[in-house]
Amino acid sequence: MKLQQFYIDDIIKTAITEDINYIDSTTDLLIPEDDISEAYFMAKDSGVLAGVEVAARVFKLLDENIEVKFLFKDGDRVNKGDIVAEFKGNTAAMLKAERTALNLIQHMSGIATYTRKCVDLVEGTNASVTDTRKTLPGLRALQKYSVVAGGGKNHRYNLTDAAMLKDNHIDAYGGITAAVNELRKKAGHMLQIEVEARTLDDVREALDCKVNVIMLDNMSCEEMKKAAELTEGRAKLEASGNVTLDTIRSIAETGVDIISLGALTHSVKAFDISMKWIKK
Fold it and tell me: Is this prediction's pTM over 0.85?
């Protein structure tokens, strides 16, 4: 999986423009224009790396002559104290790149690290770990990429990718069967349909409608196990709602196919990486 360069560049340019709207009052008034330095990124915790190329690109956009060498790739585990990357080049440009590069790689690595924890906890079951649309505006591709770097999978990217009948759609239209039938009249043959089920009766109705995926919304493990027995592989089952590191293994063991967590992207802790300068 590779992020599109134009997308990465647009994010970086927006961030840099936000950070430096005229000059860097510290760097530009203090550091000689031709000064050269060496520095490195160091991991201050143990986890999974994501955003290597994104962080490197920040430096290159500010000065293409900066030498950037990452010692790990996306998806690699790093330990506290590991040197993640090495830099050599124009001191002023490196100082200007530092914060934006760290913001991006720390956020992306935080997502990858939390995702890997979840993936490790469900190992040996049939369940895959996926993200949701609970992402930060403008950063969805970076966040979903980071989930994949951590060993997870992506749910639909946006509202166009699939028809997902959630509780409010069902209540607004007048029921699961009526909504699914109307969708099938209007949708193209490539569109998959997912239905949110709040009860086991909802699961039965969705199965009768022959939908592709059934989301089990905030159901207990006992209910999810019964749903898996009812379904017998006729539809994919997605568990969603209140999934934590403490509960994810039990949920996976109910027989569901997918466990989706908004927490992978909307509330992760940034992975701690710092930039250190080699004193002259």
Answer: yes
